[in-house]
Amino acid sequence: MTIARRKSREVTIGNVRIGGDNPVVVQSMTNTDTRDVEQTVEQINSLAEAGCEIVRVAVLNDDAAWAIRPIKDQVTVPLVADIHFDHRLAVSALEAGVDALRINPGNIGGQKNVDKVVDAAKAHGSVIRVGVNGGSLERDLVEKYCGPTPEAMVESALRHVRMLEDRNFDNIKISLKSSSVTDTVTAYRLLGQQCEYPLHIGVTEAGTMLRGSVKSSVGIGILLWQGIGDTLRVSLTEDPVAEMAVAWEILRSLGLRFRGPEIISCPTCGRTEIDLISLAGEIERRLQNETQSFKVAVMGCVVNGPGEAREADIGIAGGRDKGIIFRHGEVIRTVKGGSNLLAAFNEELDKFLAERQG
Ligand code: SF4
């Protein structure tokens, strides 16, 4: 079943097109001090290598804004400057070559300042992302809605957006983040019905690796399944590079985009005769930098494994005395058990990958 995507208008950040019929784009944010050009460049490039397509950097002061210039010279992914309250930093970041801004026009000190930011964004052809966070909503909206509800978040976002529209600026993307999965989903659904701007989706402050991945997968997954979301970020209390694997796995699970192999492995049961958990871990490590998309199966018994994993392009099923390697359920090699298994599988995997490339 294909997902019917919400209709959104197309905008471009650097060389990445967002919204419209374009695929959902994976984003993240650096956690380095942006003034530290070397470290920031290193992290941006690691993110890009792991599949990040747009990177946001925090711009806290003028030095950070101007650091964008040397950073841009050493990276290829588009950059978004994350700015709170200070319109001068936004203008400096644009002059330094940033591709987009994340700034809320309602928080930068009035019409004159909004005009300056809008003029600079227009001059540079840059997108402005309005980013509303449930934790920092305007007080009047919190009072009106008796809390930071999804409705309050949507009204806040549209209020900021209107300030840009009033200045004939519509190169806009919107995000609405809450640490509550249900509020996040409700807010995006409401907003999605009220405008056609592309939406950046994610669950904020989702948590550490396990909890953050689960919350993000549920929230982002529900939204994507409903066709909502043009860019996404999995927010984890982790090295941001770790977010990439989760983000791409969410996209893969929904059949939206594919990057790198899918590894299926059986849950093990009373018939398992080998250390399947270690074997699956080894194979996952072996394939962690592979970008080709195919299906690998790691199964715990030779009797049921190949059949259960028939749809895998290549797979291994291990028993105490022997293991088998199969392609699409057909056995292509039988090996003795033990450490031979992994070595033989790696050989067959190399052949398989060479054939695909050839
Ligand atoms: Fe059990 Fe074999 Fe199925 Fe794994 S493949 S769960 S070991 S029956």
Automatic annotation (TrEMBL):
Which residues are noted in the entry as [4Fe-4S] cluster-binding? 266, 269, 301, 308
So, what pathway does this thing act in?
A: Isoprenoid biosynthesis; isopentenyl diphosphate biosynthesis via DXP pathway; isopentenyl diphosphate from 1-deoxy-D-xylulose 5-phosphate: step 5/6
Q: Could you say which EC number(s) this protein's record lists?
A: 1.17.7.3
Catalytic activity annotated for this protein? (2E)-4-hydroxy-3-methylbut-2-enyl diphosphate + oxidized [flavodoxin] + H2O + 2 H(+) = 2-C-methyl-D-erythritol 2,4-cyclic diphosphate + reduced [flavodoxin]
Q: Does the keyword Ribonucleoprotein apply?
A: no
Q: Name one Pfam family in it.
A: GcpE
Q: Which GO terms describe its biological process?
A: isopentenyl diphosphate biosynthetic process, methylerythritol 4-phosphate pathway; terpenoid biosynthetic process
Cofactor info, note text:
Binds 1 [4Fe-4S] cluster.
Q: Which residues form the IspG TIM-barrel domain?
A: 9-248
What are its cofactors? Answer: [4Fe-4S] cluster
Please state every residue range assigned to the domain named IspG C-terminal: 262-350
Could you give a GO molecular-function term held by this entry? 4-hydroxy-3-methylbut-2-enyl-diphosphate synthase activity (flavodoxin)
Q: Which InterPro entries match?
A: Dihydropteroate_synth-like_sf, IspG_bac, IspG_bac-typ, IspG_C, IspG_TIM, NO2/SO3_Rdtase_4Fe4S_sf
User: Which keywords, in A-to-Z order, does the entry hold?
Assistant: 4Fe-4S, Iron, Iron-sulfur, Isoprene biosynthesis, Metal-binding, Oxidoreductase
Q: Record's superkingdom?
A: Bacteria
Q: Which family does it belong to?
A: Belongs to the IspG family.
Q: What role does it play?
A: Converts 2C-methyl-D-erythritol 2,4-cyclodiphosphate (ME-2,4cPP) into 1-hydroxy-2-methyl-2-(E)-butenyl 4-diphosphate.
Name of this protein: 4-hydroxy-3-methylbut-2-en-1-yl diphosphate synthase (flavodoxin)
Species for this entry: Oleidesulfovibrio alaskensis (strain ATCC BAA-1058 / DSM 17464 / G20)
Q: What is the organism lineage in this UniProt record?
A: Bacteria, Pseudomonadati, Thermodesulfobacteriota, Desulfovibrionia, Desulfovibrionales
